[in-house]
Write a structure and sequence with these properties.
single chain; about 180 residues; mainly alpha; about 0% strand
Length: about 180
């Protein structure tokens, strides 16, 4: 009897999900498009781990503190090595040196940032999906309408500051949204 009621609950939820998808196809298609845009953005701008002169070798140094003996540039006394980014590198270990992991994280950051820009556009009164896509395109895609280098997520390289852009976008959203009482 208990098994029958569990099956009926699961079937009911599946039918509810089907009706939700059926009634919200346009919204789900729009959000799927935003996810695809985030993946394309990440694929276009991801340059691999620490591709910046100020950060070369820091992740390796965080994982293997005794590496680079006598190197005057990677001394182990850099303040950046105390950031949560390098604490995570130390905790994850060898896997942190694999750029495939960083690409997955970068895709997630790009999707978060694009969704954040979309939410800010809605908050500012832009309701149409096409208009919101135009705003995202102006900010995320290099073009000749505005002299821009898109920085929804830092495209220079994957380093600690890469996390700042999506966080700043969502912080701006929550500040603009304010507290509703």
């Amino acid at each position: 009897m208990l098994q029958f009621s569990l099956w009926s609950i699961m079937i009911g939820r599946i039918l509810d999900l089907k009706s939700f998808i059926r009634s919200n196809k346009a919204a789900l298609a729009y959000y799927a498009l935003l996810v695809l845009l985030g993946i394309a953005y990440a694929g276009g701008f991801f340059t691999a781990q620490e591709n910046h002169p100020g950060y070369y070798g820091n992740a390796f140094k965080a994982i293997y503190p005794d590496s680079f003996p006598g190197d005057r540039y990677v001394t182990g006394r850099q303040p950046t090595l105390m950031s949560l980014f390098y604490v995570a590198a130390n905790l994850v270990g060898e896997l942190w040196l694999d750029d495939r992991l960083h690409f997955v994280i970068y895709v997630g950051l790009a999707i978060l940032a694009i969704f954040g820009v979309d939410r800010i556009a809605v908050l500012l009164g832009i309701q149409g999906k096409a208009e919101r896509l135009v705003i995202i395109a102006i900010l995320a895609i290099p073009h000749h309408f505005k002299d821009n280098v898109p920085h929804i997520v830092d495209g220079c390289c994957y380093r600690p500051t890469t996390f700042i852009h999506p966080l700043a976008i969502w912080l701006a959203f929550f500040l603009l949204k304010g507290r509703k009482t």
